[in-house]
Write a structure and sequence with these properties.
The chain folds into three domains: about 80 residues, RNA polymerase II/Efflux pump adaptor protein, barrel-sandwich hybrid domain (OB fold (Dihydrolipoamide Acetyltransferase, E2P)); about 100 residues, no CATH class; about 210 residues, Chloramphenicol Acetyltransferase, CATH 3.30.559.10. It is globular, with a radius of gyration of 27 Å. The protein is of the alpha+beta class. The N and C termini lie far apart (about 60 Å). β9 and β10 form a beta hairpin. The chain is built from ten helices and 20 strands. It has a six-stranded mixed sheet with strand order 11-20-19-18-14-17, covered by helices on one side. A four-stranded antiparallel sheet has the order 1-8-6-3.
């Protein structure tokens, strides 16, 4: 009997949250097979087991904080080879391993069960013997959540990712491809407008030639006769818990103050429109964020105290001025807000920053961002422009001393030289740590950003 302990994950990580077990007691595992998912610094990593064998007992539960060196499971080594022939058992006849009712099939519903049925097309994409239970299919947490929300059995989705045991890992694009091909399962128990139609109508052959219809959301159906539930209790785990801890530490450590301003941005809008044409030639989408990043970097050089951090020492506190300009970009994900970092933004062009923002945002939403890509920021920008609202007072991404909020551009009547005209304006807001950044400094810092955004020529001079 051997103990499986949490190994050193690297990057100085000493503990993490056990997000999910990928195996259960009694499972046979192979050496280097991922068995748990652990979240550290908002990044989720899969941890492999070093030896093959049979999992005899699990010593930690999902949601537990686990430390490096902690025993997580008992493993009977050597059992994996003995059980190997069992994994190569011949496939059962198609009639006994029928595809879900939502999968396309050419067999009539009235055919006898003993008649051979052609295997579903998606099953041919991998060779793993009998279908794995959905919870045993290798996939990231966000993919599992998407599948559950869509009512899809993950064991029926062909995976194209790296091989884990006898099955390829199911990636987000694999699930989307499966759904777009009209193969998504109908949620069990969900009522239907066509309740008089037989259930097999969802698997009719002609469905494959039609575009997948958008499922009716759960909240559309309401049983008015049923008594509403008094409450629902959900443990705060994973990313949500990390965010809650970070926000509490920031709010109760740094005395925040807010600063809000508005500026006319017609020239910025025009410059962005021209930049979009250039970006399109390189396959890069240009938003307003790259311009704002460059304006912020210029202002941070002008007011280095905003690019500093306050560190507690045995003798008091030290103000540490950062010489790198690493800009965090807050990205909304289904699990919460995550902040990937544009490293050395002062050394990158608008096009490079735009491309990096796009790539990092995609990795964050897919749950594939590394811990290194989520740390080291010296100042953070959060954008709500695509949502709306006038402005907000964001919470500082501690231990930074400032954060900037960016909001929607809107047309409104403005006055210039005694004349009224319709111009484009944008609100920006800041939260600063008052222990480090005085009110006047925060105002001047905001003015420095606005000057650069209102005068694109000045901004262009700071591109290199």
């Amino acid at each position: 009997m051997a103990d499986f302990k949490l190994p050193d994950i690297g990057e100085g990580v000493v503990e993490g949250e056990l997000i999910q077990w990928l195996v259960k007691a009694g499972d046979v595992v192979e050496a280097d097979q991922p068995v748990i998912e652990v979240m550290t610094d908002k990044a989720t990593v899969e941890v492999p087991i070093p030896v093959g064998g049979t999992i005899k007992a699990l010593k930690a539960e999902e949601g537990d904080m686990i430390k490096v060196g902690q025993v997580l499971a008992e493993v009977e080594a050597g059992a994996a080879q003995a059980a190997a022939p069992k994994a190569e058992a011949p496939k059962a006849p198609a009639a006994t391993t029928a595809a879900p009712t939502s999968a396309p099939t050419s067999a009539p519903t009235s055919a006898p069960t003993s008649a051979p049925v052609a295997p579903a097309p998606q099953a041919a994409a991998y060779s793993g013997g009998a279908s794995l239970p959905a919870h045993d299919v290798p996939a990231a947490p966000i993919v599992r959540a998407m599948a559950q929300k869509s009512g899809v059995d993950l064991s029926q989705v062909p995976g194209t990712g790296p091989k884990v045991g006898s099955r390829n890992r199911v990636l987000e694009e694999d699930l989307l491809r499966y759904l777009n091909n009209g193969a998504g399962a109908v949620q069990a128990g969900a009522p239907s407008f066509a309740s008089s139609a037989p259930s097999s109508s969802f698997a009719a052959p002609q469905a494959a030639s039609k575009p997948a219809t958008k499922p009716v959301p759960d909240y559309f159906y309401r049983d008015l006769a049923a008594a509403p539930a008094a409450e629902e209790r959900v443990p705060m785990r994973g990313l949500r818990r990390v965010i809650a801890q970070a926000m509490s530490k920031s709010k109760f450590t740094a005395p925040h103050y807010a600063y809000v301003d508005e500026f006319e941005c017609s020239e910025l809008v025009s410059l962005r429109e021209e930049a979009k044409k250039v970006g399109a030639q390189y396959g890069v989408s240009i938003s307003y964020l790259p311009f704002i990043v460059k304006a912020v970097v210029g202002a941070l050089k002008e007011f280095p105290v905003v690019n500093a951090q306050l560190e507690e020492t045995e003798k008091g506190s030290d103000l540490v001025y950062k010489k790198e300009y690493n800009i965090g970009i807050a990205v909304a994900t289904p699990d919460g807000l995550v902040v990937p970092v544009i490293k050395n933004a002062d050394r990158k062009s608008l096009l490079q920053i735009a491309q990096e923002i796009s790539e990092l945002s995609g990795k964050v939403r897919a749950g594939k961002a590394t811990s290194e890509e989520l740390r080291g920021s010296t100042f953070t920008i959060t954008s709500m422009g695509n949502i709306g609202g006038l402005f907000a007072t964001p919470i500082i991404n501690y231990p930074e001393v400032g954060i900037m909020g960016v909001y929607k551009i809107q047309e409104k009547p403005l006055a210039k030289d005694g004349e009224l005209y319709v111009g484009k304006t944008m609100h920006i807001s800041f939260s600063f740590d008052h222990r480090v950044v005085d009110g006047a400094v925060g105002g001047y810092f905001s003015n420095a950003i606005i000057e650069r955004l209102q005068n694109p020529a000045r901004l262009l001079m700071e591109l290199v």
